[in-house]
Amino acid sequence: MRHAHLPHRGRRPVSRAPPHVDACRMGTVDGASRQGRSKWISGGCPGPCPAVRDSRSSNPTGPHLTARHEQTRNQEMVSGSCLCGTVTYEVQGPFTSMVNCHCSMCRKQHGAPFATFLPAPLAGFRWTGAEAALVTFQSSTRSVRSGCKTCGAPAPIVLPERNMALVPAGPLEGDLPLTPQMHIFVGSKAPWYAITDGLPQHEAFPPEFGVQGVERPTVDARPGVTSGSCLCGEVAFEVEGDALIMQNCHCTRCRRARGAAHGTNIFYRAEQFRWLRGAELAVDYKIPEAKHHTVTFCRRCTGALPRVDTVRNVAVVPAGCLDTDPPLRPQRHIFTAHKAAWFAITDELPQLPEAPPPLFPRT
Asked: Considering its fold, how many domains does the chain have in total?
């Protein structure tokens, strides 16, 4: 399996932009889209942008914007933070692309089905709080990932050698001037996640990126057992038997914790779960004002990990960190009233605007 990621855009070929470096190595791959042979070039779209919004309406109506207004919006400052609020940052465009990456490294760090990145000029990026609170991990020979040491939330990837910053879109506040334009590394896509949005799909990096992914180890599946691990592999676990439910959560806490469009969690009974190794590396962070919301991550790589809630007798597994296919597929979206404006739900799963009914109703 090859893995990594990068950004792009456009309805027609546009000028070349710097490639997005994943925690994997980059290289040439087959750039043919699964939706057809259309060729996509990194950079901004010279035509109308469906992601920008008309000044008179909150609905996407790019063609109604003047070129000057569109250019101004594309250079606005946006800010973001980790889940606990310790690590904060600002970034200013021009933003030329936005991409969904399905590589296993992104899935394991974020604990989500994919990560969405917004590349920006390095001159427009700055840390505004507690850069010293970052944990860094050399995930490949050419890439270093980082996350907050308190809450484990993924942080932007700063690439001085490419004069750019790759900012996770999930924690960003405000209305972004772009929407995702392609999926990359769908050859490494989680088997439980279905892409239904019609965007171009690439098996790995499009060839014009000129970079190559790296091979990642695979785990043999065992009947009735679902296995997973963190990004660095020092922590591993397994769950046995059927799951209770699997759902996509769009709440702001999940988007900040995962640095992604949404989290996808699988619920099991606590007794179905067990650590295989590295349990001492697992760190829990509970949001002070929350009744239950707690995230667990590896202190070495900040990769997402399951949380075992002994009070409610459940194990909550971030599906992105799984190594084998779970026994079910996502069954619903929850907290859709808080969904990221730049992400469109295009599947036919039920949508709950707020919290779902209790998994274990009170008796």
From this structure: 2
